[in-house]
Amino acid sequence: MLMVRYVASKFFYMLVSLFILISATFFLMKAIPGNPFMSEKAVPPQIRERLMEQYGLNKPVIEQYGQYLKNIAQGNFGISMKMQNKEVTELITDTFGASLKLGLIAIVVSVIVGVLLGLVAALYHRKLIDNIAMVLAVLGIAVPSFVIAAMLQFVFAQKAGWFHVSGFSGPLDYVLPVVALSAQPIAFIARLTRSSMLEVLHADYIKTARAKGLNWFTILFRHVVRNGILPVVTYLGPMTANIITGSVVIEQIFGIGGLGKVFVTSISNRDYTLIMGVTIFYGIILMLARFLTDIAYVFVDPRIKLNNGKEG
Amino acid sequence: MKKRSIVLLTLILALSTILAACGDKKEAGSTEGTATTKLAADQTFHINLASEPPTLDPAQSQDNVSSSIIRTLFEGLTNKDKDGNITPGVAEKWEPSADGKEYTFTLRSDAKWSNGDPVTAKDFEYAWKRVLDPKTQPAPPYAYQLYYIKNAQAYNEGKAKVEDVGVKAVDDKTLKVSLENATPYWLGLTSFTTYYPVNEKVVANAKWATSPDSLVGNGPFKLSTWTTGQTLEVSKNDKYWDNKNITLTKITASIVDSAATEVSSYKSGQLDLAGQPIGEIPTDQIASLKSEIPNELTIKGIASTYYYLFNVTEKPFNNLKIRQAFTKAINRQALIDNVTLGNQIPAFGLVPPGIKGIKDEFRKENPDSAYGKEDANEAKALLAEGLKEEGLDKLPKITLIYNTNDNHKKAALAIGDMWKQTLGAEVTVQNQEWGVFLQNRRNLNYQVARAGFGADYNDPMTFIDLFTSTSGNNDTGFKNAEYDKLVKEAYSNSDNNVRNEAMKKAEDLLIKQNQVILPIYYYTNIQLVKPYVKDVVIDYGGQLDVTHVKLLEH
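Output (structure tokens, whole complex):
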């Protein structure tokens, strides 16, 4: 019962945030000067007016807002104003595939490599291997992903010729963008895992377990890893959302036709319907990630109790 | 969001330049000297598009990327050869009437659509009327390219009926066109995308031009793949009437909007062609490319002008002498040699080289040296006089605006500095996001603003009519009855001598007598082409035509 209420309230807040997001984006977007039909070569006024009329842009903003809310309530996100006769939903599904594939692979790689690196560093605390792992982690956090991307591209694609410089057609094309994209999360996860493992390793119940003469591997995987991985789980939600929605620059460098690129160009094009569509889509992903993390938390961490805010 | 990614991109560009500069030079040698005259077995041509084509419907196209692709998929009544001469396309021959106001086109009988239908005169009549139809959705922005046709503008504005429009298919093979005026350059427009035919049967489907399954064209190629944001591919159209003269079997275009990535891809061999007009080469790499692969870097003048606009309605640029002082105070060649780096040509006029005049190019017949020259001392004297006329004791602060772009920024900083050096002007350069910039310019909410214009057709009029008092492109506040009269005279007259004389007078009025704009340079097209690629055509205006490209063995 408590669980249902907890989930329902989280869900309700999600809807409210989504509504605020839609309204704020809509009015901010309309406040930027310009329209989808501007160009250095002026379109004759009568043609521009006809275009504005055809897309309903000649009406007062508040009326356009009402109309838009009505449309999306019916699941109609409209057609792009710049990419002729393409549905917004179609453009999103066409391009999100690439971002999603790239993002998911990067997440899996980050978690596996990050946790392993952190674990090894914790087990060999203050030894050479720990130091190496942590220097790598600091580098990974400090060097921005686009610098890593440009370097990888130059060394391994342009000079060595092992990979394509740009494009996203074969499995080999995934390697460089995934490395560039996961460097930072790997570093972060490794540090997170290491510090929480160290904490767990010195906990009393581990000492007890060892004293009982339990097999070291059982201790490691039953108790140490399971408890030590908690912070990583909490980080997973926001990280997933960030990677999937935030690969714009990497997509740009490697010429991957993902949603990020579409989003950025839609704004400079004042492609109103597309801006709204992608914003809502990204908004939902970010909120869902948050929502799922909140719920996962309850299951993973028994210390969170749902007794009306009085958490134990 | 936008701003941040621009900052990031700038950094990437900067970084990749540094990295590229460290690269070893051996690579350049390996691509040289292997060219033979034998054709390569694989005739797939690899290019890059810097942006997704917004449309592949000829009626809607108004940008270089979409028109470059549309040119492979469709064919108009006429074509242009590599020297810009008009050659037969779907029309076998044509006959102008004695007064030059009517044209009769005879279509070839073997022209076919990619679905096998014959291309008829009705297809042209339908396509042109479709562009002009006020009910067409979305309203074709380039409809005004058809306004030369009798009653076209009136129909487009809802003031005339469709049957009054001066285009008529007499029979399947004969198309009669009546014009408003005997416009001498009109025939050349029939090779322009807005004049391409469309197949009525397929156009009923609103999304016809978005997918390979439904796009039917009459050009040398047909659309075979289009994945949003990834690739666009066209392959040879066997139904094309002249397909024996088409060598390429496929053109594959990646869609990547990072200039640095494009050059990297080119160097790694992924692309056969890079750069303008469909892509871009970062300015900071031009110098290293010039030394690394000089035989692959091609720079060609195109009919476009880069200039600054003065807001003539506000102090201090309401004063002619101050405008002249600012125009004379800059050193264009130094700017080109050190900043823009693309071998551009210093400009003193509005009409660029490459545009036809009476017998030769307009610019050769009317050299822009007549409009004055750079002279720091004269600039200082003019400034002093101008300030006195305005009753000012010193020059107010000047703000120069440009739209966010690295090249515009560099040019603006250099020019601002030149003004400071020679005139002691206090100059702030300010970048504005594209939409904001255009709005400010249109509302005359500026002092000096960047501008650029490329030819729509091969006649000085494409530039001259920008500055009439009713032009939507005249963002200067300049209104001059005499100028309007001269433009009107050139519009309505069919005698090319009279027209050119009027346009020359108009340009003189605009620049020498009023200095409404500050011409900076005439653009060049900067491109990288592999040595084994033959017959890439860049026309006078910088339009790309790759339909007749051949790839040699390499």
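Confidence is low (pLDDT under 50) at residues 308-312 of chain A.
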